[in-house]
Amino acid sequence: MIMKRLIGIVAVALSLVAVPDLLKAQDVQLTAGATIEITLTSPSVTYTLSSTTGINALAVSDSTLTLTLDAGDTITVTQNNGYVIDNNLGVGTSCIGAITRATFTASVIITSGATAQGCQTGGSGSPISDASIRINNGASQTSSRNVTLSLQAGNAKQMILSHLVNFADAQWEPYAEAKAWTLTDGLGEKRVYVNYLSTGGEQSQPMSAVITLTEGVTAAPAPDGSVPSSQPQATQTPVLQQTGVPSEGALVKLLNDPRVYLISQGLKRWIQDEQAFTQQGYSWSNIVVVSDTALQQYWDGPRIESAVAAAAYKFTRYLASGSVGTEVSALQKILKALGFFPQQVKETGYYGTTTRSAVIAFQKARGITPLGVVGPQTRAALNR
Length: 384
Prior knowledge:
Blueprint: E1 35-41, E2 44-50, E3 57-60, E4 64-68, E5 75-79, E6 86-87, E7 94-96, E8 99-104, E9 108-111, E10 129-135, E11 141-142, E12 146-154, E13 156-162, E14 173-174, E15 178-182, E16 188-198, E17 207-213, E18 240-241, E19 251-253, E20 260-264, E21 267-271, H1 274-279, E22 287-289, H2 292-295, E23 299-300, H3 326-337, H4 353-365, H5 376-383
Parallel strand pairs: 11-17, 18-22, 19-22, 21-23
Antiparallel strand pairs: 1-2, 2-5, 3-4, 4-9, 5-8, 6-9, 7-8, 10-12, 12-15, 13-14, 13-16, 16-17, 19-20, 20-21
Helix pairs in contact: 3-4
């Protein structure tokens, strides 16, 4: 078997318009456990590729995606707009909420297409109601990878669980209100995703719960509301109660959970520590307590981390789509620390669509005209 290796590009959204000759079969491989996002341009459709085994080669044109697999390889392709995943093998497209996916075990050619699969997430029948997921009854930390999931969903008959947002490694199973679960290896934030299927055949939207795996510490929020010092100290000032769904730009938390989130562009973004909270200029008095149901209306977005790395690098170049080099890598790293660049995407040193989107988000947050390029104003903001 040819060695499955990744040269230069891992888990990054790629634009074939800016660099049409960038991707070649021998230059891009998908390693075991990695994820990569590919955008085809005719028509413009983005696919997310995940593989537990890795594959040998990947080739892209403006309208096709060719995946070369060896015996024993497997790859799951998902599409977040709910489009049919057209392929030459005739493998069917299934739905998880509004997301479509197809799993392949042989070499395949995927053709870009924008035909809706027709995923049903609501309508007549018996829809899912009051859905939720908790890890260790809502604890914020655990020192053991072995945890218990608490699962609630009215009218549910099946569920699907995964540590991957696209459920690439999971299968539907009978609904249960509790399930033993093993977190992924390595310390830090761990997230578990769930989707429910109702007795009427309708799916909920995917939702998730998060817990931090620590070394020898099992610190859950205390009854008095005190929290670990590494978290934003939301109990320093009176916290407002709020009913209903939080609005854009709101700072929110659950009653007995120290984590504080920013509601931004339809996502909830965890503010990882007090330094990050302060750097962003947030006010403790603006934090409101919301219900778990209200918070679960939002998908998880990239974390907001403190920008410690920013002081270590001074930007001097004009950067735009197609730029490459160490300055682009530094830009990606700093934008990731600030929460604008996706956490799961590796810094590649290539300025593609993912980097441009992150720059635009940074510019909007800093009151800079969002042109998607690093010019004098953006450079000055990054160098502060």
